C-alpha cells in the first residue's frame, strides 16, 4: 500500500511540474485580451472590481507601517518591484545626482606635416614620449609628444592608413589600410617585417590583444579576423555583421573582442565559441566609434546624436549622455578622470562627465588658415597616458593638442548648466 501511495505522489508531482512548465503562462492574461474582457463587462461588474480593489488596499494598509503606506500599497497592488522601476523614482534619481566638475579644455599646439586627412593616431603605451599618426597621404608619422616635432616617417602603404595600434609587449606597430593590407613595423629597425593578407576589401581597423599574440582586424568586408602575429595566419574569422566594420578593440578578459559597424550594432564576441554572445542594438544609425574606460570595466559607443555607455561583460546600458543635436560623431576618448571626449564631423569638441552623462563644455575647433570650411571635421582622438593632454587628428590635415585650463575653479569656469530631463534619458 505504501508503494502505491508513493507512485501516486510521484504522478501528482510530475503532473504539477508538467502543468507549471506548459501552462504557467496562462495564469497571466495578456493586455490585449484584458481590454477585450473589460469591454464586455457591464457597469455593475466594473463597479464590483473597483470595490474589491479598494478593499484589498485597505486590508494591506492595516498591515504595514504608516510611513511606508504609499510604497507598500503600490507594491501590494502592482508587484514588489514596481516602485523601483517607476517613472517618478527615475525622475527623482536623475534630479538628485550632481555631475562632477571638470576643468575646461583649450588648444595649446597645432602640428602640421601630413598632406592628407589625419585618420588615426595612437600614443606610446610604454613611456608616453611619442605618438603615431596615419593619414590619407598613405604614410605613418612618429611625433615627439612633448615638443610636437616629427621624428620619423614610415612609408609602405599605397592607400589611406585607417588605423594604428602599438604593442605594449613587443617593439611593434601595426597599421591597417584601404589597400587590403595590414603591416607590422619593427620600431627598432623602422621597417616592415610582416604583411597580413586575407581581407577581401579595405581594412578599417586593427587592434592587438593585450595578453595573447593575436591581432584583430576588420573592415569593409564585414568580418573580424584574428591573426597569429608570428605565423601571419588567420586563426579565426568572426562572421555576423551585415555592413562594414568601423572599429574593433581587444580586452584581456571576456568579451575579448568587441566590434562596431555601420549596421548600427555593437557585438561582443566569444572567441572560444567563435560567435557573438551579445548584440547591442540600441543605436539607430552607424556606430563609428566606441572606447573603453581606462579604470572601470565599461565602454562607451556613439552614433549620430546618441552616446551611450555600457557595463561589461554583460553589455547592460549604464548611461544615456546629453548628446542630442551633437551631429555625426567620429571619435570617442575617455581618460582616468571620467572625462569623455566626442569629436564631431562638424568640427565640434564635446566634453562630458562620464558618470552622469552631462555635457559640461562644447567648443569649435580652430581650422588651419587656408583650409576649406568643409574640412572642419575631427576624425580621430586619443588622451595621453596621464589623461592630461588630448590629441586630435582633423580633416584640415593638422594634429592639435589640447589641455585643461590651469588654475580654473568651479566659480571661474562653471561650465554648461546641468538641466536633467527624463525625456532626454532614453530608457
From TrEMBL:
Lineage, top ranks: Eukaryota, Fungi, Dikarya, Ascomycota, Saccharomycotina
PROSITE patterns found in the cross-reference section: WD_REPEATS_1, WD_REPEATS_2, WD_REPEATS_REGION
Major localization listed first in the record, in broad terms: nucleus
Entry keyword annotation includes Repeat: yes
Species for this entry: Zygosaccharomyces mellis
Job description of the protein: Involved in pre-mRNA splicing and required for cell cycle progression at G2/M.
Record localization: Nucleus
UniProt xrefs under Pfam families: WD40
Encoding gene, per UniProt annotation: PRP46
Ranges occupied by WD repeats: 111-153, 154-195, 196-237, 238-279
Protein name: Pre-mRNA-splicing factor PRP46
Amino acid at each position: 500500500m505504501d508503494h502505491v501511495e508513493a507512485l501516486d505522489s510521484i504522478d501528482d508531482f510530475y503532473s504539477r511540474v508538467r502543468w507549471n512548465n506548459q501552462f504557467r503562462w496562462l495564469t497571466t492574461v495578456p493586455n490585449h485580451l484584458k481590454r477585450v474582457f473589460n469591454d464586455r463587462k457591464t457597469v455593475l461588474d466594473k463597479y464590483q472590481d473597483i470595490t474589491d480593489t479598494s478593499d484589498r488596499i485597505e486590508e494591506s494598509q492595516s498591515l504595514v507601517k504608516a510611513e511606508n503606506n504609499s510604497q507598500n500599497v503600490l507594491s501590494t497592488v502592482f508587484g514588489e518591484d514596481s516602485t523601483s522601476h517607476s517613472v517618478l523614482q527615475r525622475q527623482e534619481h536623475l534630479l538628485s545626482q550632481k555631475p562632477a566638475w571638470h576643468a575646461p579644455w583649450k588648444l595649446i599646439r597645432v602640428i602640421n606635416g601630413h598632406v592628407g586627412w589625419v585618420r588615426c593616431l595612437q600614443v606610446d603605451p610604454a613611456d608616453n614620449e611619442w605618438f603615431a599618426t596615419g593619414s590619407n597621404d598613405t604614410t605613418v608619422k612618429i611625433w615627439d609628444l612633448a615638443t610636437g616635432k616629427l621624428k620619423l616617417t614610415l612609408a609602405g602603404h599605397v592607400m589611406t592608413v585607417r588605423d594604428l595600434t602599438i604593442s605594449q609587449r613587443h617593439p611593434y606597430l601595426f597599421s591597417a589600410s584601404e589597400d587590403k593590407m595590414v603591416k607590422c613595423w619593427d620600431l627598432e629597425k623602422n621597417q616592415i617585417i610582416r604583411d597580413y593578407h586575407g581581407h577581401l576589401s579595405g581594412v578599417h581597423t586593427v587592434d592587438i590583444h593585450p595578453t595573447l599574440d593575436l591581432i584583430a582586424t576588420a573592415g569593409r568586408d564585414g568580418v573580424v579576423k584574428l591573426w597569429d602575429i608570428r605565423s601571419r595566419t588567420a586563426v579565426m574569422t568572426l562572421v555576423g555583421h551585415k555592413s562594414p566594420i568601423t572599429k574593433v578593440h581587444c580586452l584581456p578578459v571576456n568579451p575579448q573582442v568587441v566590434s562596431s559597424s555601420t549596421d548600427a550594432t555593437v557585438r561582443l564576441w566569444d572567441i572560444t565559441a567563435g560567435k557573438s554572445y551579445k548584440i547591442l542594438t540600441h543605436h539607430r544609425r552607424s556606430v563609428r566609434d566606441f572606447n573603453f574606460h581606462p579604470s572601470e570595466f565599461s565602454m562607451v559607443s556613439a552614433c549620430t546624436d546618441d552616446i551611450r555607455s555600457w557595463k561589461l561583460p554583460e553589455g547592460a546600458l549604464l548611461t544615456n549622455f546629453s548628446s542630442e543635436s551633437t551631429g555625426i560623431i567620429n571619435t570617442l576618448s575617455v581618460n582616468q578622470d571620467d572625462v569623455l571626449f566626442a569629436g564631431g564631423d562638424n568640427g565640434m569638441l564635446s566634453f562630458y562627465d562620464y558618470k552622469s552623462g552631462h555635457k559640461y563644455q562644447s567648443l569649435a575647433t580652430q581650422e588651419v588658415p587656408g583650409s576649406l570650411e568643409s574640412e572642419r571635421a575631427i576624425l580621430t582622438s586619443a588622451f595621453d597616458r596621464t589623461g592630461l593632454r588630448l590629441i586630435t587628428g582633423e580633416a584640415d590635415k593638422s594634429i592639435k593638442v589640447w589641455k585643461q585650463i590651469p588654475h580654473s575653479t568651479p566659480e571661474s569656469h562653471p561650465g554648461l548648466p546641468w538641466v536633467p530631463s527624463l525625456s532626454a534619458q532614453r530608457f
